[in-house]
Amino acid sequence: MKDCLWYLDEKAVHEIYNNTMKISDNTYNGVINPGSLQSVLEHIQNDLYYPEFEDKLTHLFLSIAKFHCFQDGNKRSAIALSTAFLIFNGYSGIVAEFVIEMERFVVLVASNAMSVDLCKKIIVSMLNGDYGSDESLKLEILKAYKQHEKIMKSYE
Question: Which top-level group of life is the source organism from (predicted)?
């Protein structure tokens, strides 16, 4: 991890959110829970709770996807804001893989089928450049998909 990290501020978040919504042809409904958003942005800077880059990225991704800071586009915003965090901290080499994979997993996060630990394992694997080669990780992801199916069936 770099000694000095670039963190998102509220202005950057609003700009990224608005651009994300514009690209996906949605109206910009904006922030509905400013306290949660501010909390996420402040907490990832706390090295006691989130000492490593992967801890910070995991918290940012999960929190934006789950806390419903925005009226619409929370899952898309989780991906976009995490991508910006990666790019501005020198991890642009994994962005394509990150976006593709997290688009698959963000629904699992939102439904509580994917744990914090599993999300972090996936992110660490991507950062280490060995994503897709760990069979035990693949099995954990499969279990999360099965859990998601059970959750969705319970709503029928």
Answer: Bacteria
**Helix H or strand E encompassing 103:** helix 95-110
Comparing C-alpha atoms, which of 112, 119, 49, 115 is closest to residue 79? 119
Residue linked to tokens 């630990």: 117
**pLDDT per residue of the chain (156 residues) written in tens, 0 to 9:** 456 899 999 999 999 999 998 888 766 677 888 889 999 999 999 999 999 999 999 999 999 999 989 988 899 999 999 999 999 999 999 999 999 999 999 999 999 999 999 999 999 999 999 998 999 999 999 999 999 999 999 988
Does the pTM exceed 0.90?
yes
Indicate the number of domains in the chain.
1
Spell 13-41 as b/e; 16+ CB within 10 A means b. Answer: beebbeebbeeeeeeeeebeeeebbeebb
The answer to whether residue 4 sits within a structural domain is no
Q: Using alpha carbons, list the distances in angstroms from residue 59 to 27, 106, 135, 143.
A: 26, 13, 24, 21
- 28 belongs to a structural domain: yes
